[in-house]
Amino acid sequence: MAILTAIRDVTPAQLKLIMDDAIEKLKARAAAKGYRVVVVYELLPHTHLAIGQEYWKNSQALTSGTWTKEIDHELDEDEFIVFLGGFNLTDDPKVTGFRFKVGSGGGGGTRDIAMLDKMYALDEVVWFYKEPIFYDGKETVYIEYYQKASVVAGDESIGHIALVAKKYGEDISAPLPV
Fold first, then answer.
1. Main-chain dihedrals φ then ψ at residue 7, nearest 5 degrees
2. Which end of the chain is more exposed for a tag (fewer CB within 10 A), N or C?
3. Domain residues for 85?
4. What distance in Å separates the CA atoms of residue 92 and residue 88, rounded to the nearest whole number?
């Protein structure tokens, strides 16, 4: 189960190390699949996960007391994603957990589970996972949310802190700095 760390407990130097390490690991995963020049940038909800909008909100209604699928998206072959943490900017959050699975319908197993009540009890809206959660090209990212009460689509301002690595020239094609 994911161990959560409140952002207030992460120094700027630690945050830089977390980001640098995640970027290097994404590049290594891409290189292992034969991609030599990749660009790493912040994940966009619609562009990379086919969520209905390019901002973080629950995209569908969530049923109380159940794990509800929120994301079920197969990555392109040249996409590599790492989830580093999450946030919930809702005044009275209802989503209390994330379950990261892999495969169509989540049938490939569970990568990690994060329960969010501790963060809410600390009045924390942003958190990081002790260990990043990786998905490599052609894998299906399947994420479920658990909620203590039903939520109408778009009512929960909840999302993920994540990076994506893609082959240079796909989404990003401006000249690379020397």
1. -60, -30
2. C
3. 4-167
4. 9
Q: How far apart, in Å, are the Cα atoms of 53 and each of 17, 30, 138, 153, 163? A: 30, 27, 22, 12, 17
Distance between CA atoms of residues 52 and 71, nearest Å:
10
Residue 173 forms part of a structural domain: no
| CB 118, CB 70: distance < 8 Å | no
- From the list 55, 39, 46, the residue with the least C-alpha distance to 87 is 55
Element (H, E) at 19: helix 12-32
Read off the pLDDT of residues 10-53 as tens digits, 9 standing for 90 and up: 889 999 999 999 999 999 999 999 988 888 999 999 999 999 89
Residue 94 within any structural domain of the chain: yes
In a domain, 62, yes or no: yes
Number of structural domains, the chain?
A: 1
| Average pLDDT value for residue range 56-80 | 95
